Amino acid sequence: MNKTVSVIMPVYNAEKYVAFAINSVLAQSYSNWELLVVDDCSTDLSVTLVSDYVKKDNRIRLFHTDKASGSPCEPRNVGIRNAQGRYIAFLDSDDVWLPNKLSEQLRWFDDGRTAIVYSNYEKISEEGVRAGRIVTAPQQVSYKELLKGNVIGNLTGMYDVEKVGKVYCRKIHHEDYVLWLSILKKGYIAKNTNAVHALYRVRKQSVSANKLAVVSWQWNIYRNVEKIGCFSTCYYFVHYAWRALLKCKK
Questions:
Q1: Phi–psi pair at 189, nearest 5 degrees
Q2: Partners of 82 in beta bridges
Q3: Which residues of 154-191 are buried (b: 16+ CB within 10 A; e: fewer)?
Q4: Fold designation for 5-248
Q5: SS3 letters across the chain
Q6: Which residues contact residue 107 at a Cβ distance below 8 angstroms, ignoring those fewer than 6 apart?
Q7: Per-residue pLDDT in tens (0 to 9) along the chain, 250 residues
Q8: What is the pTM of this model?
Q9: Where are the domains of the chain?
């Protein structure tokens, strides 16, 4: 049985951080993985750095987008299209996994209903300093629960291709959230390992730092992607706003 984990890593001008991300995959206690790095037309030394890793480890492959897409959506889709593993996981080029991330998560795909496994994560500074800022997610979520807010940190999420097929990102803001919703909408559930398995780097220029934009993206997902009625949208939006407030305090 194919137990390979395909790790998708979009890269754009990440020369300061990408080595840390790749090294955290290399350090996994579970070794049956492939790393698909997809460069989005970087203008720095990112490609050179990644190419050095490709030469040293045949589990690492480098791909390129045809033109700069301006978001991680297309690079992730390039990776998904070329993935050969049963499981697909995501790691951005400025984030880091802890060594037991894959081995611990794979144990949770133990029943027919679990299509996604995720974990808690810790926020670190732009310089990589840890200060115990833990983001804790619920033990389990269904589609309706996830509508109350995205509790699946993208750097921790992994889904089972054998159960749901290859699921791609839509070109929309919060594309990772929409991807998780599309899987759970089929009746599956997502489970949390209840442990910290990744480090999320908080950067000032990150897209998610624009809080007002994020609010409008969330509303758009409810109304135009999930096609939820106005009353239900307000209900879920209140839950989303509360969870977002709690997350910001971490």
A1: -125, 165
A2: none
A3: bbbbbbbbebbeebebeebbbbbbbbbbbbbeeebbbb
A4: Spore Coat Polysaccharide Biosynthesis Protein SpsA; Chain A (3.90.550)
A5: CCCCEEEEEEECCCCCCHHHHHHHHHCCCCCCEEEEEEECCCCCCHHHHHHHHHHHCCCEEEEECCCCCCCCHHHHHHHHHHCCCCEEEECCCCCEECCCHHHHHHCCCCCCCEEEEEEEEEEECCCCCEEEEEECCCCEECHHHHCCCCCCCCCCCEEEHHHHCCCCCCCCCCHHHHHHHHHHCCCCEEEEEEEEEEEEECCCCCHHHCHHHHHHHHHHHHHHHCCCCHHHHHHHHHHHHHHHHHHHCC
A6: none
A7: 569 999 999 999 999 999 999 999 999 999 999 999 999 999 999 999 999 999 999 999 999 999 999 899 999 999 999 999 999 999 999 999 999 999 999 999 999 999 999 999 999 999 999 999 999 999 999 999 999 999 999 999 999 999 999 999 999 988 999 999 999 999 999 999 999 999 999 987 654 446 677 888 998 999 999 999 999 999 998 988 877 766 665 5
A8: 0.92
A9: 5-248
